[in-house]
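Customer escalation, tier 2.

The customer says the design service returned an amino acid string that "doesn't look like it belongs to this structure." They asked us to rerun it and document both sides in this ticket. The original structure tokens are below, unchanged.
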């Protein structure tokens, strides 16, 4: 599986988890806790493989200001979702009124980010990196994903 296919699959999985979370109510305490745990693991692993492997390859292959701008914007979107909104959501009581709002903000941030990547960055990456490099990156990312998931589960 190439890097873009792997990341797109991650996006689809995250969208499904966030959509399921959005459909819960304050009475679904157990379901919300389970979903938030899955979302946290998925988001942290996804962000890590992008930041460690895909983004540096994209940035290094880039040939102009637009590529650099896409790279830095993607990093900031990760920071907003992973370092600001997700930790707030994790600290929020799942049966509180604030929980639904924070879950919605995380969903909207993620969807915006994934849409931009899929429509702009991935399209550009195909041109910059080529098929062979995308395959190699996909293999590295799949391997790193396994390592990160094991570490998350052990924590």
């Amino acid at each position: 599986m190439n890097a873009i296919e792997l990341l797109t699959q991650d996006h689809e999985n995250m969208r499904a988890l966030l959509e399921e979370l959005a459909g819960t109510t304050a009475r679904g305490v157990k379901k919300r806790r389970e979903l938030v745990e899955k979302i946290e693991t998925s988001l942290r692993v996804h962000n890590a493989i992008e930041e460690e492997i895909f983004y540096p390859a994209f940035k290094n292959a880039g040939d102009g200001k637009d590529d650099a701008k896409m790279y830095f914007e993607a990093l900031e979107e990760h920071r907003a979702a992973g370092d600001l909104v997700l930790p707030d959501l994790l600290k929020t009581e799942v049966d509180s009124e604030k929980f639904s709002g924070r879950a919605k903000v995380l969903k909207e941030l993620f969807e915006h980010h994934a849409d931009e990547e899929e429509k702009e960055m991935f399209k550009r990456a195909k041109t910059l990196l080529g098929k062979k490099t995308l395959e190699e990156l996909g293999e590295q990312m799949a391997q790193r994903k396994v390592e990160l998931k094991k570490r998350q589960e052990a924590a």
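Tier 2 assessment: The sequence is consistent with the input. The CA atoms of residues 3 and 78 lie 18 Å apart. The mean pLDDT is 95. Sent an explanation to the customer and offered a walkthrough call.
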